[in-house]
Amino acid sequence: MIELVNINKVYRKGNKNDVHALKDVSLNIEEGELVALVGVSGSGKSTLLHILGCLDDYDSGEYYFKGRNITKLGSKQIARIRNEEIGFVLQSFGLILGNTVYNNIALPLLLSNKTKVSEIELKIDEILKKLGIYQKKKNLVESLSGGQQQRVAIARAIINNPLLILADEPTGHLDRSTSKDMMDIFHDLNKNEGATILIATHDPFIYEQCHRIIRIDDGRIQ
Amino acid sequence: MKFIKNMMLAFKYGSIFSINRIIIILELIIVLVLGNIAFNHLLIDNANRTELRALVANNIVIYDMEDEEQVEYCTKNGNPIDYNYPYLYFYKESPDRPLRDGFNTRVYSREYLNIVKLPLKIGKWFDDIDIGEYDFIVVIPYKFRKDLKVGKTYKLYTTLEDENAKYTVYVAGLLKPYIHSDEIICLDAKGIIPHEKRYEYNNMKYARLDYFDTNELAQLGIVRFDEEYKRVLEINKSDRGFLVILISTLYTIFLCGFTGDRILNIDTYTKTFATMFLCGATRRKALTMQFLQNIPVVLTSGLISYFLIKYLYRVEFKYMFFNTTAFFGFIAITLAIHVLLSFLVLSIISKQSPVGIISGRDI
Ligand SMILES: Nc1ncnc2c1ncn2[C@@H]1O[C@H](COP(=O)(O)OP(=O)(O)O)[C@@H](O)[C@H]1O
Ligand SMILES: [Mg+2]
Asked: How far is it between the farthest Cα atoms of chain A?
């Protein structure tokens, strides 16, 4: 489903202190896989995920997402892929503060125009129940615990039923038992919904549960 | 449609927390109200109301018909006033219709009408009209605008002696809506009204209050009976400079607060921008959203301050008049500042990459 060919990414290009964050990265991920991307801090995990998530561009190489060459698409088409086909979960949750759980989860739906207004609430209720935070629906996100906030972030990531879920150290700010709950959710999504999931982490507890481990070191896939 | 939808979406997810938003709305209201008052003060000296200045030049006293004491005073001082002015009704149909079907009309002398020129919405004042074959020339109050049309000539019955006679009545102009007159203002062009009734209407010293916006009178320094107005006129002369300085200072302080708020909140703006990008908005749309979310804020505060200002002018600042042009001109200036500010904020956000914001690098 995903194919990267010789991707290179250089931060601060042309500067003296430029960073070659990804070096000739090539990789394949099939549909339905649960993959861990493992590496020490600064090895380029986030950079790779941002590129896979169509959030950032790259300096050379090709990226095929379901056979489509992302390099050749316009910003509107790419935004659409981000909206409908990819769900992104961040370490820092990335929720809009001052808004309710409901509003935060509704955002991708409202941006996409695809779902009917009458169906939005049903859809959100369903996901909230599944993730066990239904009773927090009307609460402001900042009033939730870390684990609950991460659930909201996951709910937002999967609300449009994406093919690919990218999680960048999703348990980095969570304790062990909450991390376990989080992994259970990912397992469930992978098994029952057939979602392809890529989790960046350096936590053995997490990557040991994944089907495949991709190691990255200093911008190179091992 | 799409624009409104985007705007509401942006507003819903606006990076300003709801409490902050209320503060901004309040600040904007204060800015608009104070600024407008200051602005108006500065404009007063330039008020170009020549027709009312003529009243000042002629030392005309404005009196209130409702106030018996004032009416009595005017009459006692040897000046028969318009209390006794010829008064008649015009009828479109037949003269024996009940009074309420007629047009309440008061007749004035040509000299008087040459001085007391009232602001018109459309049409011309009496001195611009060639009498021609018209028996009466009239300027109608706003409330009659549907019954009689400016520029047209009507054949009307009257309450004059011969009830079956029709007179040619030319409608020369329509008073501005804020002149709350119940009566048509009429010039007896051919001298049709009997001489014994006409002696009264050459009075040039008194004019009825109803015809003027009280605020306009005061700022133009027209003499009024009320004690209150004497005081107000004093304020106009001595304290105006002080008021302008005071209000302008407050305005500046609040404008700075308002600006500061924007700059301080830039962090939340950028985060919302990045989150919208992450959730599938294009970079351009996510940026536009940060701008659009301000529009409902501006509209709400604009609307509230409009009514507040109108109220203040009616109740607190009777000596000033509400100048619609000044108000909207002022709103435009404040909005321009607001828009500039928003663009400044936007340019700051647009220099950052959403990824940088998401990974906490650029903040
Ligand atoms: N926006 C950026 N500007 C400059 N350097 C960056 C930026 N983002 C990441 N880097 C550098 O790229 C390398 C890889 O970073 P990152 O992908 O965040 O690693 P990880 O997520 O594995 O910790 C690091 O050396 C980091 O300092
Ligand atoms: Mg990282």
From this structure: 55
Write the pLDDT tens digit of every residue in B31-45.
788 777 776 666 554
DSSP 8-state code for residue B117: P
Q: How many of the other CB atoms lie within 10 Å of CB of B10?
A: 23
Other CB atoms closer than 10 Å to residue B70's CB: what's the count? 21
Rounded CA separation A131/B1 (Å): 35
Specify the DSSP class assigned to residue B358.
H
Q: Please answer whether residues B31 and B334 qualify as being in contact, where contact means their C-beta atoms are separated by less than 8 angstroms.
A: yes
* CB nearest B279 (choices: A75, A99, A156): A156
Task: Note the ipTM here.
Answer: 0.93
Please give the structure tokens belonging to residue B262. 């924007």
Query: Domain tally for chain A?
Result: 1
Q: How far are the Cα atoms of A129, A169, A198, B237, B356 from residue A46, in angstroms, in the given order?
A: 30, 9, 11, 70, 11
pLDDT for the residue B198: 56
Q: Is the pLDDT of residue B350 over 50?
A: yes
B62 belongs to a structural domain: no
Question: Is the residue at A144 inside a domain?
Answer: yes
Contact A55 B12 (CB under 8 A): no
Q: Which amino acid is at A194?
A: G
Hey, what are A136's tokens?
């927090």
Crossing angle of helices B294-315/B2-12, nearest 10°? 90
Instruction: Assess if residue B338 is contained within a domain.
Output: yes
pLDDT of A85 higher than 80: yes
Structural domain span for residue B112: 82-203
Q: pLDDT at position A7, please?
A: 94
Read off the CATH number of the domain in which A36 is found.
3.40.50.300
pLDDT of residue B143: 87
Closest by alpha carbon to B275, among A97, A31, A170?
Answer: A97
Tokens 């790779």 appear where? Answer: A48
Q: Is A173 part of a structural domain of the chain?
A: yes
Nearest ligand for residue A202 CA = 1
* Ligand 1 closest atom vs CA A41: 23
Count of residues in chain A: 222
Q: Which of B158, B143, B337 is nearest to B251 (CA)?
A: B337
Residue at which a domain ends, from B186, B203, B220: B203
* CA distances to A107, A110, A120, A121 from A115, in Å: 11, 8, 7, 10
**Cα separation, B337 vs B331, whole angstroms:** 10
Q: For ligand 1, atom 26, name the residue with the nearest CA.
A: A42
B17–A98 CB contact, under 8 Å: yes
Q: Give how many domains chain B has, as a whole number.
A: 2
**Inter-chain residue contact A97 with B283, CB threshold 8 Å:** no
Half-sphere exposure of B8 (CA within 13 A, CB side): 5
Interstrand relation of A220-221 and A196-201 (parallel, antiparallel or unpaired): unpaired
Q: Can you spell out the DSSP letters for B86-115?
A: -EEEEESS-TTS-GGGSEEEEEE-HHHHHH
B56 with B221: CB under 8 angstroms?
yes
Domain region containing A217: 30-57+83-221
B160 assigned to some structural domain: yes
Q: Which atom of ligand 1 is nearest to the CA of A43?
A: 22
- C-alpha B241/C-alpha B253 separation (Å) is 19
Judge whether A9 lies within some domain: no
Q: Is residue B211 part of a domain?
A: no
